[in-house]
TrEMBL record:
It comes from Turnix velox. It comes from the Eukaryota. GO terms for biological process: axoneme assembly; cilium movement involved in cell motility. This is CFA46 protein. InterPro entries: CFAP46.
Amino acid sequence: SQAEWEELLTNCSAFLFYGMERFLSHVLLDRLVAMNIPKCHLVIILDLMRSKQSYQRITKSDIHKSCQQTAIESPTETAMLLSLIGVRSVIANQWHATLQENAERLEVLSQNLLSAGRTTGQTVRVLQK
């Protein structure tokens, strides 16, 4: 529910979203922009995965949205909105990915951030290679 999303984002120092389609298609945009979450140091968004069912769901949802509202849900705009509400760092997919690709990204992120103790910048460089 929206209340659960808000509670998780408000009470965390790091947040990981691993899900289908766009992150902002799961959260109410007007409620998100009203939040203030300066305690959240890092948001990792591994979204933009697509299945037949998720594509149908998002297509039905997008019919009721304006072009501007759909454009705000893009990766760059999502990162900007999260930054404006207080998130210090955002790591996110830029393009659609398969479930396997995102699973591999999550493994690399976990190994580098948690096990190796690398910074977010160093970890993103590892992902880019």
